[in-house]
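Hey, I'm writing a tutorial for new members on how sequence and structure tokens pair up, and I'd like a real worked example in the thread rather than a made-up one. If someone can provide the structure for the chain below, I'll link this post from the tutorial.
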Amino acid sequence: MLTIKDLNVHYGGIHALRGVSLEVPEGKIITLVGANGAGKSTLLRTICSLVPATSGSIKFFDRELTEMLSFKVVQEGIAMAPEGRKVFVNLSVYENLMMGAFNRTNHDEIKKDLDSVFNIFPRLKEREKQQAATLSGGEQQMLAVGRALMSRPKLLMLDEPSLGLAPLLIKEVFRVIRAIHKEGTTILLIEQNAMAALQIAHYGYVMETGKIVLEGTGEDLLNDERVKKAYLGESI
């Protein structure tokens, strides 16, 4: 589905991504773990064309994305729930969700997906008319994921969905990720909580200072002594 080959990205004089190569097969949960500053968010932003690639290739169903405008990437079927939620705080929950469907015109299908989001996140239904600014951190995270789902993505990218949440809410976030995957959505999950992410991932990559340093099945990486020593996380 998504194939990245020898991707390099520079921020001024900083070499942020160094020859990154990875694959996201259709129907799988793939996770990318690593410490803060490793380059994980930069990779997602580059996939979305929010950050330009210096060199390398990003192909989605054999369509090259590196020269594509961001809204075109969304139209191709990729959506991201960004780190820090980035909800529109002055808009209602409903209006935020509708922003996720900005490139769609079939109102019946949009309504069907809205009902699906409310089914996954009943709390958003309860707060449908509230301003996003009044939501808790966990509810804003739900809203960010729901907004991404409203584009009906083939690939959903989640950037640190558990960051800053209480343990019970983290459990809920990972339950939701499993539910979304079960409905047929492919997921690329970026997480500092390596143990939690690898428990639900089919395959994982470990990134350090802009490079992929380890890869393997979620189970293999969970049992890798280097991962155990370097990355701590709560079990789900």
